[in-house]
Amino acid sequence: MFIINWLVAFGKYIEMLGRVFQRPERLRIFFKRYYNEVYQLGIDSIGIVLLISLFIGAVICIQFKMNIQSTWMPSWVPGYATREIMLLEFSSSIMCLILSGKVGSNIASELGAMRVTQQIDALEIMGVNSANYLILPKIVALVSIMPVLVTFSVAAGIIGAYCTVYIGHIGTVRELTVGMQYSFNQWFFWMGVIKAMFFAFLIATISSYYGYNVKGGSIEVGKASTNAVVTGSVLILVSDTFLTQLLS
Q1: Cα(138)–Cα(208) distance, rounded to whole angstroms?
Q2: What is the 8-class DSSP label of residue 73?
Q3: Do the beta carbons of residue 127 and residue 231 sit within 8 Å?
């Protein structure tokens, strides 16, 4: 029964995507909604991205310097480890898990509220492709803004590491800088960006699916928001395993 329900849901998801990825009837309206979604989903998330990344970068540096480093380990390792962790996993995968809770629930609850108040039905009656009109700007906006969020996250994590050096006096700036620059592979940054864009697509489409297909009242909207966050988070973790193997 679980497999059958999953296959039915997957079929509806693909059907929804088929309606979403059609050429908008009016590009001017599409771009107007796109800019609004960029601000709502991306720009409004910069603050939490910077705050979390700043402290995570600081904590990584402190942990390596105080609890992991030994006499056999070079003094530049904390800087190197902070850079690699921020580039390879945190700023792409873990940050998208966090954004899944903020952005995913936002999308699902917004579309769910429109469904239960029959706003989506009204669009359909007027001959508007509601899936394309409502969902496509959200997908394009989140996917396009995600590289910016990844860049800000990496930069904030590195700044957090330097703050620990200045404030906590747990090392020298030179040691940290040597570690940050040691054996830098530019592909690691682009790998994180590619992964984050794929995760952004998952967050936007899965949250839109649950919100768009809500049936019932306000209670179902809350359930759809929860299901969107849980499903999106699980799929991000699963796909991260395969993407890391594929891109490495």
Answers
A1: 9
A2: S
A3: no
Q: Of 7, 160, 143, which Cα lies nearest the Cα of 86?
A: 160
Q: What angle do CA 149, 151, 153 make, to 5 degrees?
A: 70
In terms of phi and psi (left: phi > 0; alpha: psi -120 to 50; beta: otherwise), the region of 187 is alpha
- Joined together, the tokens standing for residue 222 give 């809350």
Note the pLDDT tens digit of each residue in 73-127: 777 888 888 889 898 888 888 888 888 888 988 999 999 988 888 888 888 888 8
Three-class SS state of 127: coil
Structure tokens at 121: 């039905």
Are the C-beta atoms of residues 49 and 62 closer than 8 Å to each other? Answer: no
Closest to 56 in 3D by CA, of 24, 89, 27, 31: 89
- DSSP letters for 5-59: HHHHHHHHHHHHHHHHSS--S-HHHHHHHHHHHIIIIIGGGHHHHHHHHHHHHHH
**Dist. CA 175–CA 74, nearest whole Å:** 9
Q: Tell me 72's DSSP state.
A: T
CA dist 243 and 61 (Å) reads 26
Give the type of residue at 92.
Answer: S
Token pair listed for 215: 């049936």
pLDDT band at 69 (very low <50, low <70, confident <90, very high): low
- pTM summary value: 0.90
